[in-house]
């Protein structure tokens, strides 16, 4: 198989013989199940609603070897069923197979669903039954709720990977190294942030992965502003201009207000111990 991680623009649409269609925010285990039904000339047709925040558009290709082609929902949602099929056939002249999930609907007022797709498309239509894990239906919207609750472990199970966000480094209050521990402060734009609190994480800097601990939330003990700060365990990393990636593993505790810097510092040192123990026990 010659197809490695390909950018959609590099693959000629004429070679595509099968497609999976959907929003695909998260590229979670149910999405991956759809992709398993693609052949080696398979592609992903991603319909952009503008709300993706688990794997925003530019970060999605990382999670599949199949090239992703993006379409804007606004531009295609008015189509009647036959017009939608016509568009797909124009885009992918050699299309033989379409893969969708049980709840896939399309076109004007979402009135065309899987039965219509089978009726209108002359090739093969593969419909995937609802994928569940431990009785939880796997959907982007469900995963978002677990993240907002701070239940990273369940979210990660449904994602089939560690939830990962990208950010760029910004200047902090300048208190960390002096009064607490050194942290990299991040500006996060398009990604959903988990609940406020302290998390065991891994941080990727310049392609190197480090064990870390990350605080997200309003710094209620100091200046009250919202921050995402990560402390690399056992290293003193200087702030640099690299794009930083944070993979979430587990929540340690909620955000808290402390009576003074001393108490906060002691708690941070405890948090660091918990995180270090976590990493010792899993390796
Ligand atoms: C592991 C860790 C846990 C933290 N927990 C809290 C907390 O519970 N409450 C809080 O107000 N700030 C918390 N902070 C944030 C500190 O207030 C912050 O690191 C400090 O204000 C220094 O900020 P600076 O890096 O912008 O200088 C935490 C920071 C770290 C690294
Ligand atoms: N749990 C699932 N089981 C089977 N198919 C699924 C499942 N979740 C999504 N799909 C299919 O994957 C494709 C992408 O769907 P979509 O982007 O709506 O995912 P989703 O996770 O259900 O998102 P949302 O929660 O926003 O509805 C669609 O064809 C959809 O039918």
From TrEMBL:
A GO MF label: ATP binding
Family recorded in the similarity comment: Belongs to the ribF family.
Annotated SMART domains: Flavokinase (SM00904)
Keywords: ATP-binding, FAD, Flavoprotein, FMN, Kinase, Multifunctional enzyme, Nucleotide-binding, Nucleotidyltransferase, Transferase
Domain Riboflavin kinase: 158-280
UniProt source species: Arcobacter venerupis
Highest taxon in the source lineage: Bacteria
Role this protein plays: Catalyzes the phosphorylation of riboflavin to FMN followed by the adenylation of FMN to FAD.
Signal peptide: none
A biological process from GO: FAD biosynthetic process
Functional pathway: Cofactor biosynthesis; FMN biosynthesis; FMN from riboflavin (ATP route): step 1/1; Cofactor biosynthesis; FAD biosynthesis; FAD from FMN: step 1/1
Full protein name: Riboflavin biosynthesis protein
EC number in record: 2.7.1.26, 2.7.7.2
Enzyme class: transferase
Swiss-Prot/TrEMBL catalytic activity: riboflavin + ATP = FMN + ADP + H(+); FMN + ATP + H(+) = FAD + diphosphate
Organism phylogeny: Bacteria, Pseudomonadati, Campylobacterota, Epsilonproteobacteria, Campylobacterales
């Amino acid at each position: 198989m010659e197809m490695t991680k390909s950018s959609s623009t590099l693959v000629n649409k004429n070679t595509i013989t099968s497609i999976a269609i959907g929003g695909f925010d998260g590229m979670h285990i149910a999405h991956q199940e759809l992709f398993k039904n693609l052949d080696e000339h398979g592609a992903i047709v991603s319909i952009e609603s503008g709300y993706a925040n688990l794997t925003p558009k530019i970060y999605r290709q990382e999670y599949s070897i199949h090239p992703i082609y993006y379409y804007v929902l606004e531009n295609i949602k008015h189509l009647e069923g036959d017009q939608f099929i016509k568009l797909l056939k124009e885009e992918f002249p050699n299309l033989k197979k379409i893969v969708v999930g049980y709840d896939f609907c399309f076109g004007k007022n979402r009135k065309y669903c899987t039965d219509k797709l089978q009726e209108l498309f002359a090739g093969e239509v593969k419909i995937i039954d609802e994928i569940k894990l431990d009785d939880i239906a796997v959907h982007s919207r469900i995963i978002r709720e677990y993240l907002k609750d701070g239940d990273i472990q369940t979210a990660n199970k449904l994602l089939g990977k560690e939830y990962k966000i990208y950010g760029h480094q910004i200047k902090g209050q300048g208190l960390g190294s002096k009064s607490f521990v050194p942290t990299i402060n991040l500006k996060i734009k398009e990604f959903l942030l988990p609940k406020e609190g302290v998390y065991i994480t891994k941080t990727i800097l310049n392609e190197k992965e480090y064990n870390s601990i990350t605080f997200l939330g309003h710094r209620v003990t100091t200046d009250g502003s919202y921050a995402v700060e990560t402390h690399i365990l056992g290293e003193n990393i200087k702030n640099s201009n690299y794009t930083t990636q944070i993979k979430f593993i587990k929540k340690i505790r909620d955000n808290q207000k402390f009576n003074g810097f001393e108490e906060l510092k002691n708690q941070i040192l405890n948090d660091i111990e918990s995180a270090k123990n976590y990493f010792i026990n899993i390796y």
